[in-house]
Amino acid sequence: MIRMKSKNLIINRLALNIATRFAIKNPKRNIPRLIKSVERFSSDPNQKKHLKAFRDESNPMYKLLLESFENINPNTMKLLIRNLGVNAALVGIERTREVMRENQCNVPIAILMDPTSACNLTCKGCWAAEYDKTDNLSYRLMDRIIMEGKDLGIYWYLYSGGEPTIRKNDLLKLAKKHQDCVFLAFTNGTLVDEEFAIALAEVGNLTLAISVEGFEEETDFRRGEGTYQKVIRAMKILKEHRVLFGISTCYHNKNTDVVGSEEFIDYMIEMGASYGWLFTYMPLGKDALPELMSTPEQREFMFHQVRKFRETKSIFLIDFWNDGDYARGCIAGGRSYLHINANGDVEPCAFIHYSNVNIKDVSLLESLKSPLFRQYNRRQPFNNNYLRPCPLLDNPDKLKVMVHKSKAKSTQMIDEESVDDLTDKCQQAAKEWAPVADRIRRESNKLSKFVDLKPPRYWDVEWDGAEERIDDEETNYKSIKKEEY
């Protein structure tokens, strides 16, 4: 059976390589053939349904794929389709599910790590400012993490910081060594130059998500005068060299109307951005600015705008909070991803600076079994309304329980912010968002079909694989009492 499975995989990979070459030569005619080749790798009906959108000429995702073949260098497109479309999204997922069942723990599809805590900017309210600025992950350690990750079926690696492109030589070296993986660096874009763009085009499997918070006024408000112009220059250089890139945008109280506008999204598409990661402001650390937190009205505005743009714009957008209905709640704690900071502390999320273990002392698999990660695994989802997914911003008492129960320590070396102080800053925002999110869930016709389904339990040896509907009267948190923390 294993030999037959391997033979089929080889045949399907060969068909995919041929289809990709044809698509590069004549995208419009051969994209349907390419997507059908990718579909052969999937046994999941939901994955097949999403893939079909990329061969529907009336769908913006088809237009995005067509434009990508025309505007991005062929080497990148070949590696992107193979590494993200097959290795990460299809082949890798089968392996991660096996490991989950064997070890009864979460195993993510992606790992976010910080090559360095150093940064050349000082942005207002930035959570990265709470880490020691001298911390770095060595090349050897990052390589070890990737090797261990691939053994678990993980083929997608992301970098944050600090400013990860301070270590761009190491990032390029890792991408070149691991040509079967996809790499993405969240960057402020200020260190992008011609030499770096040429190297990115040559390596093919490292893309940049450039931080931009609106136009010049909004971006420079938090990031410093002159940053926006450096960002635009970086985009022009990357576009000229046909390098795949996207944007990373934090929406907050002062910029939501701009970053959620058609004018801004259209301009980012014009500049060459193929995708966008959208975050909302989180008040982490002693220098946090709680007044920047988005209002319920702003979060709802972004909910509607992002869904509208998906139906009309040729850019792939993800809103990590408002897309909770697609992800079936929080994706952290190893459920879909984890974070390793520049000191090596393994954290459940880039916004949750607490940990029990350091990757320098344990294996990647051992870190997924650590007490705090076990708490996440036991208690997800944190709310039956997936539009309230986050254990910090939307359900702060639940993060408090998990950190205290697991005895996790603060990883913020500058101020070691307690979980009680952190969650106190989110209580009012959670209270105000709850009725708005509940109304949207009742009334919106733009929600994923997963909004009424429980998350799959691949780690549970007793789960038979059948979908289970959410019982709104039930909560997986009913056994947790306040006195436990």
Low-confidence stretches: 474-485
How do the helices and strands follow one another from N- to C-terminus?
HHHHHEHEHEHEHHEHHEHEHEEEHHHEHH
Q: How many helix segments? A: 19
The neighbouring-strand order within the major sheet is 7-6-5-4-3-2-1-8-9
Strand content: 5-15%
What is the count of β-strands? Answer: 11
User: Largest sheet, if any?
Assistant: 9 strands, mixed
Backbone shape: globular
Estimated radius of gyration: 21 Å
How would you characterize the overall build of this protein?
Residues 474-485 have low confidence and may be disordered. It is built from 19 helices and eleven strands. Helix 1 (2-25) packs antiparallel against helix 2, helix 1 (2-25) packs antiparallel against helix 5 (74-103) and helix 16 (371-379) packs antiparallel against helix 17 (396-406). It is of the alpha/beta class and 485 residues long. It is globular and about 55 Å long. Helix content is 46%, strand content 10%. The strands form two sheets. A nine-stranded mixed β-sheet has the order 7-6-5-4-3-2-1-8-9.
